[in-house]
Automatic annotation (TrEMBL):
Role this protein plays: Involved in the import of serine and threonine into the cell, with the concomitant import of sodium (symport system).
Lineage per the UniProt record: Bacteria, Bacillati, Bacillota, Bacilli, Lactobacillales
Principal location class: membrane
Cell membrane recorded as keyword: yes
UniProt cross-references to PANTHER family, sorted A to Z: PROTON/GLUTAMATE-ASPARTATE SYMPORTER (PTHR42865), SERINE_THREONINE TRANSPORTER SSTT (PTHR42865:SF8)
Subcellular location: Cell membrane; Membrane
Membrane-crossing segments per the record: 12-32, 38-61, 81-101, 138-158, 179-207, 213-237, 289-310, 322-347
One BP annotation, GO: threonine transport
GO cellular component labels: plasma membrane
Gene name for this UniProt entry: sstT
Protein name: Serine/threonine transporter SstT
Gene Ontology MF term list: neutral L-amino acid:sodium symporter activity
Length: 406
């Protein structure tokens, strides 16, 4: 038994996760009822990540800001530009793909019990109110905009504090980082439970009726992940982008795919940034910020499903209006975290651009909930892995300009 465990821990974490993934698929297909207890592993894994992430972000950001030396440069401006560029590019890809492969749907009842925001102003207002949320409430509800704002304020006010106070903050953030590593070591069991739960409870059959819609959605996200993002990265770092792209997809995207939670993936992303040797002052802020505003996957979902509604109702759309939709989808996606329900509930907002009634748009939201098993998984994997990708890209580009080998 000891030898078996020794061999197991000698494998890389990614290989162990893949083994857990395969076991989960086999059990989900062959014994969905008998193996039901293993779903607890998935629930525990996601619960632990979600529990530790708010505290990790708060102390990492506060510690990094309090110890930041005057004149020391970070890459936050470049990272934010990359986030916005990536989100808009994804929305544009989705609009073009929807023109090339138009999708129509059979509308039915669904999503009657949820309320969509009334406009972009409402989305942005919710986002701004989250900035000044009660700090304890922000930590409890995992409101990362609020957590970031209060952590930044605490960090700035502690800049002139005693060295012992800063050391305490640093020690707490280091301890939380180590706790995250312990939780991530259980990722193979967690992924096994999560993938089993998806296959055993939802199956694949329920998704077959929406094959074309899923093909366009997933195709757009894969195109962004494997073509658009590598192109953006190459423009910045001027070297082969695919090793970095594939590493981010492998080490961040896989866990995000199965947890379906950007918040739960924050600790995974911070560990990956540390492994890549990135500047802690930058990634301690850019990763939680990315989980809030870097929403390429959400921009794809909003654009594709909105244009599906447009095609279903036979509404003519010119390219100018579609381009405006790209901008609206990108802005809405950046504010998705300020709305309960995420990207799907922002579809009526985008649909209003074409005069689509709210009750019809909410039926499209209902379709989104049905295909959410795959749509949300791919969306989260793209969103979360891109947080690390663009943070690393900004830093590697800076090193290239300074003549430092990345």
């Amino acid at each position: 038994m000891y030898k078996l465990l020794n061999h197991w821990y000698k494998l890389s974490l990614v290989k162990r996760i893949i083994i857990g993934l395969i076991i989960g698929i086999i059990l989900g297909v062959t014994m969905p009822d008998a193996a039901q207890p293993i779903t607890i592993f998935g629930a525990l894994f996601v619960g632990a990540l979600k529990a530790i992430a708010p505290m990790l972000v708060f102390f990492l950001v506060a510690s990094a800001i309090s110890q930041h030396k005057k004149g020391q440069q970070t890459n936050m401006k470049s990272v934010i530009v990359l986030y916005l560029l990536g989100t808009f590019s994804a929305a544009l890809v989705a609009v073009v793909a929807s023109f090339i492969f138009p999708v129509t749907l059979t509308l039915g009842a669904g999503a009657e019990d949820v309320t969509a925001p009334g406009g972009v102003v409402e989305v942005l207002k919710a986002l701004l109110l989250n900035v000044v949320d009660n700090p304890v409430k922000a930590l409890y509800n995992a409101n990362y905009i609020g957590i970031l704002s209060w952590a930044l304020m605490l960090g700035f006010t502690l800049k002139n504090a005693a060295a012992s106070t800063k050391l305490m903050l640093s020690n707490v953030s280091d301890a939380l980082t180590e706790m995250v590593r312990i939780v991530i070591a259980f990722a193979p069991l967690g992924i096994m439970g999560l993938v089993f739960d998806v296959i055993a409870t939802s199956g694949i059959g329920v998704l077959l009726g929406y094959g074309k819609l899923l093909a366009v959605l997933i195709g757009c996200m894969l195109f962004v992940a494997l073509i658009i993002n590598p192109l953006i990265v190459y423009i910045y770092i001027r070297s082969n982008p695919f090793p970095l792209v594939f590493r981010c997809l492998r080490e961040s995207g896989i866990t995000a795919f199965f947890t379906r939670s950007s918040a739960a993936n924050i600790p995974v992303n911070m560990t990956l940034c540390d492994d890549l040797g990135l500047d802690r002052d930058t990634y301690s802020v850019s990763i939680p910020l990315g989980a809030t505003i870097n929403m390429a996957g959400a921009a794809v979902t909003i654009s594709v499903l909105t244009l599906a509604a447009v095609n279903t109702l036979g509404i003519p759309v010119d390219f100018g209006t579609a381009f405006i939709l790209s901008i609206l989808a990108a802005v809405s996606a950046c504010g998705a975290s300020g709305v309960a329900g995420g990207s799907l509930l922002l579809i009526p907002l985008a649909a209003s651009l074409f005069g689509i009634p709210n009750d019809v748009a909410m039926q499209i939201v209902g379709v989104g909930f049905i295909i959410g098993v795959l749509q949300d998984s791919f969306e989260t994997a793209l969103n979360s892995s891109t947080d690390v990708l663009f943070t690393a890209t900004a830093e590697f580009a800076k090193r290239r300009k300074e003549g430092i080998k990345a």
